[in-house]
Amino acid sequence: MNPTLQEAAAPAVPDEAVTPLIRGIAVLRQLTEAGGTLSLSALERATGLARSTVDRITSTLAHMGYVRLDGRDAVLAPRLMELGNAYLDALRLPALLGARADALADELDESVSLAVADDDGIRFIHQATRRRAMSLSFRIGDLLPVERTAPGPLFTTEWTAQDWKRWRARRAANPENRDFPAVPPAEHPRSAEEFARRSSRARQDGWALDDQLIEPGLVAVAVPVRDPRTGRIACAASVVSHTSRHTAAELRDTLLPRLRAAVATMEEDLRTAPRPEPAPAPSGLATWTGASKQELGREFVESLARGLTVLTAFGKGRAELTLTEVARATGLARATARRALITYEHLGLITQPRPGTFTLTPRVLSLGYPPLSRASLPHIAAPHLAALAERIHESTSLAVLTAAGNEIQYTARVATARVMSVNITVGTRLPAYATSMGRVLLADLPPADRALGPLRPLAPRTITDPRELARTLDEVRAQGYALVDEELEEGLRSLAVPVRDRSGRAVAALNTAMHASRHTLENCVDLVPALRETADAVEADLHVSARFTQVPLT
């Protein structure tokens, strides 16, 4: 939709709306549509805001941990996902149904998606994708037009005449769907009448097909998952494939019955799920924003920060909140919370299911979730490794155990400029038993699960006695770090700490390595707090990112 049509269609901004909050949301959306990174100059052009305003907004978002300023670029940061996580936690559907979708994907060896309605589009809330050369590229939070999807006709069975009118206006203004970045423009748009017929068939059949509407070769079949309490569609489950594996007719005839069986089980899960115990609401946010304003002065836009904290008031067991509950959860004055809620209603991020109660809409996922939901652990760790290398003036690395478990593989590395440096690149594999990162990861495993392999002497000091190595791993587990002194190579010392996932399992190790002439063993131990602080920062980002997504370790 072109800017003129957007302006004509957009409702007037309420008098009580918070202008800095509207501008901050615009910046986050532009960054999202750009894939997560834009220069400050490009943000200025894309939003139409003054450069000084863009600078203040990005400075505020950076202080909140929602973006990272990298030279002249603004980059979305994993912590921003806490806003989308608040919506998904409040919705409950990913937590209740995600495992069923994953199991169906494993059973069918096809991608399975869960999607909800978002006005005249659908938005993904869960993805169980198969890793193939040709695989599904949609992400959690991606918005697709209803007319080019399998779930779309299902949701239209609950549309009002006003909903159809709004859809027809949007489609007439932009039949190629150029305002939906997640899909390629439609080269040969289908008629509105054809989509109305698809909607009628979906009402009659109880399922719907997408036969290459998004792009050639992509096919999908979808079935509605109904809320047992209301009978309305809670979400739609889809099986997605490629015509090289299944035609649309084959999806209907072969996979639809199994999809329907899985959906029946999902609906039973919804029927029997106990009411959620409310998770603790965030606390002290208003105090933090006030202190940040005192610290940063004009560069911190307090009304933007306070407005964003309102979204985090929602979550598990807090799907619907009153104004009083929002103010209590955030510590904001009622008047401040009220203006933020009015602003979010205007922006379509919050709605009132009943007068006086507020709930988040799927549009909250448009705030950074799609690009961030595909971040890998090395991508998450990279800026933290860089900051650590600058702090300690030594190279830093991240590694994981290989599938066999007897080697480590480097997955991220930041090298420092020295005449004599440790020459290791991403992808390098080394024996786990003789490296600090390997020992940190082996120490986290039960002794019976440690794949040590043959203990060969790689250097004069290499531990090759299994009992001595077992004692060393027990010490590493107890002290929380590993220090390896010239066991991999003469003159090389390395120090590592674990990086743990949400369950507490060590999934990676973070280290620094240096020549023995630069640090005594005591000096190396003095670096442990810096490594641990960096690992804590990586873990914090990983835990937010992995709340509803699978974060690849490599």
Q: Would you write up a description of this structure?
A:
- It comes from Streptomyces chromofuscus.
- InterPro entries: GAF-like_dom_sf, HTH_MetabolicPath_Reg, Tscrpt_reg_IclR_C, Tscrpt_reg_IclR_N, WH-like_DNA-bd_sf, WH_DNA-bd_sf.
- May be an activator protein for the gylABX operon.
- Residues 187-197 have a biased composition (Basic and acidic residues).
- Residues 79-272, 363-544 form the IclR-ED domain.
- By secondary structure, this protein is an alpha+beta fold.
- The protein folds into three domains: 19-85 and 279-372, Winged helix-like DNA-binding domain superfamily/Winged helix DNA-binding domain (Arc Repressor Mutant, subunit A); 93-272, Beta-Lactamase; 375-546, Beta-Lactamase (2-Layer Sandwich), CATH 3.30.450.
- The chain contains 20 helices and 18 strands.
- The chain has helices at residues 3-9, 19-33, 40-47, 51-63, 81-91, 93-108, 151-156, 161-173, 192-205, 248-272, 285-296, 302-311, 323-330, 334-347, 369-372, 377-392, 436-443, 466-479, 521-526, 528-545, and strands at 37-39, 67-70, 73-76, 111-118, 121-128, 143-145, 208-211, 218-226, 233-242, 321-322, 350-354, 357-360, 396-401, 407-414, 429-431, 482-485, 492-500, 506-515.
- The strands form four sheets. The protein has a six-stranded antiparallel beta sheet with strand order 6-5-4-9-8-7. Strands 15-14-13-18-17-16 form a six-stranded antiparallel beta sheet, sandwiched between helices.
- The longest helix has 25 residues, at 248-272.
- It is globular, with a radius of gyration of 26 Å.
- The protein starts with a helix and ends in a 9-residue tail after the last helix.
- Residues 1-8 have low confidence and may be disordered.
